[in-house]
């Protein structure tokens, strides 16, 4: 079986973002990323400086941990990162699905894998200008194609007006995909801090702005959702 | 056309609760209710003492207001209350649907109507012990039957352990319905106050307790979601 590079496995807690918001989930966070977003809120799983904290684990050990955390009761497993698409997750999914577990994955859509079609949900998060990254739309579409029958949704983080306009244009490319806009956290946790302070009022203010902004445009297609875990637990890790 | 008794029409703003959380919505809140929950957060639309604030409106005038607020761009209309099921909403739905608008309704499930099957979503919220009300399950099932092909979901407000255990038993009656648990607001707005203070920390604490409580029981079926509008705007009305 394949070896995965794991930053953390935690839960069950609720999914705090996007289409599965509120759903009890165990998170498997892979270490390593092909992006380096300016406002990354998971630097401990992205920045190579923290790779000493990533544990190479055999798939069966990852699976044993998921089963232990969930008390062997099937639930949704979220594969996140970093970019989980750069890791060999096929075996984990193939192990868990026959036991009734469901799998969702969060990725920026930069790397397509032939196992995406095993997922129950693929959350594609193309990164807006404020990230400092540039989306390769050809690769992004390869991800969509690879997902085949899996439910795909778009999730776009929005920090400012430029991001907002970009999100509108990006969403227009994929009019049939359910869309989730998410206000960004401009006070993400530094990777070495387990419980850094956040600017809660600023985060709430950006969320209110985004609600008003879409209403002003009469743009009613997107769901607009904050990072619920941030509202509930701040920047605390593992919840 | 029929006359509706309207407490307020407002939006677009995001749906703050349940299955459609985050979705831009215009709310049509009817005045009057056959229940009187102890912790009702919409007393201005429930308590007969406030009926002087309810406006009898012809359906076409209600519809004109919805179109005006939405700039004639179709979106989701949420029929709420009070109990909207005690009002003749058929004509409003039949007016809006051909224009592309979608209709969701929130009701406790005490009164069934033959127009429920015109809804895009019926949110049934059976009230737990802390409400002081008692659910008539035969009537509740009549509501489900009346909904026919409409998407139905269960939403249960939970204040305490007794409510939680009740919610588990209630959910077990309807294992195929998507389920949403919602921590209650023990500091609901008094009907005469437009922006009363709330105990935000207490509300967040109940949400965290509910996440932990379901995890402890390995009960992974429900979505657990707070009232997002309360987190964003407190008890302010009309958002």
TrEMBL record, chains A, B:
<feature type="binding site">
    <location>
        <position position="29"/>
    </location>
    <ligand>
        <name>substrate</name>
    </ligand>
</feature>
<comment type="function">
    <text>Catalyzes the complex heterocyclic radical-mediated conversion of 6-carboxy-5,6,7,8-tetrahydropterin (CPH4) to 7-carboxy-7-deazaguanine (CDG), a step common to the biosynthetic pathways of all 7-deazapurine-containing compounds.</text>
</comment>
<feature type="binding site">
    <location>
        <position position="33"/>
    </location>
    <ligand>
        <name>[4Fe-4S] cluster</name>
    </ligand>
</feature>
<keyword id="KW-0456">Lyase</keyword>
<dbReference type="GO" id="GO:0008616">
    <property type="term" value="P:tRNA queuosine(34) biosynthetic process"/>
</dbReference>
<comment type="similarity">
    <text>Belongs to the radical SAM superfamily. 7-carboxy-7-deazaguanine synthase family.</text>
</comment>
<dbReference type="GO" id="GO:1904047">
    <property type="term" value="F:S-adenosyl-L-methionine binding"/>
</dbReference>
<keyword id="KW-0479">Metal-binding</keyword>
<keyword id="KW-0411">Iron-sulfur</keyword>
<keyword id="KW-0949">S-adenosyl-L-methionine</keyword>
<keyword id="KW-0408">Iron</keyword>
<dbReference type="GO" id="GO:0016840">
    <property type="term" value="F:carbon-nitrogen lyase activity"/>
</dbReference>
<keyword id="KW-0460">Magnesium</keyword>
<feature type="binding site">
    <location>
        <begin position="14"/>
        <end position="16"/>
    </location>
    <ligand>
        <name>substrate</name>
    </ligand>
</feature>
<comment type="subunit">
    <text>Homodimer.</text>
</comment>
<feature type="binding site">
    <location>
        <begin position="39"/>
        <end position="41"/>
    </location>
    <ligand>
        <name>S-adenosyl-L-methionine</name>
    </ligand>
</feature>
<dbReference type="InterPro" id="IPR058240">
    <property type="entry name" value="rSAM_sf"/>
</dbReference>
<feature type="binding site">
    <location>
        <position position="37"/>
    </location>
    <ligand>
        <name>[4Fe-4S] cluster</name>
    </ligand>
</feature>
<feature type="binding site">
    <location>
        <position position="40"/>
    </location>
    <ligand>
        <name>[4Fe-4S] cluster</name>
    </ligand>
</feature>
<feature type="binding site">
    <location>
        <position position="82"/>
    </location>
    <ligand>
        <name>S-adenosyl-L-methionine</name>
    </ligand>
</feature>
<dbReference type="InterPro" id="IPR007197">
    <property type="entry name" value="rSAM"/>
</dbReference>
<dbReference type="GO" id="GO:0000287">
    <property type="term" value="F:magnesium ion binding"/>
</dbReference>
<feature type="binding site">
    <location>
        <begin position="125"/>
        <end position="127"/>
    </location>
    <ligand>
        <name>S-adenosyl-L-methionine</name>
    </ligand>
</feature>
<dbReference type="InterPro" id="IPR013785">
    <property type="entry name" value="Aldolase_TIM"/>
</dbReference>
<dbReference type="InterPro" id="IPR017742">
    <property type="entry name" value="Deazaguanine_synth"/>
</dbReference>
<dbReference type="InterPro" id="IPR024924">
    <property type="entry name" value="7-CO-7-deazaguanine_synth-like"/>
</dbReference>
<keyword id="KW-0671">Queuosine biosynthesis</keyword>
<dbReference type="GO" id="GO:0051539">
    <property type="term" value="F:4 iron, 4 sulfur cluster binding"/>
</dbReference>
<comment type="pathway">
    <text>Purine metabolism; 7-cyano-7-deazaguanine biosynthesis.</text>
</comment>
<feature type="binding site">
    <location>
        <position position="80"/>
    </location>
    <ligand>
        <name>substrate</name>
    </ligand>
</feature>
<feature type="binding site">
    <location>
        <position position="42"/>
    </location>
    <ligand>
        <name>Mg(2+)</name>
    </ligand>
</feature>
<keyword id="KW-0004">4Fe-4S</keyword>
<protein>
    <recommendedName>
        <fullName>7-carboxy-7-deazaguanine synthase</fullName>
        <ecNumber>4.3.99.3</ecNumber>
    </recommendedName>
</protein>
<feature type="domain" description="Radical SAM core">
    <location>
        <begin position="20"/>
        <end position="221"/>
    </location>
</feature>
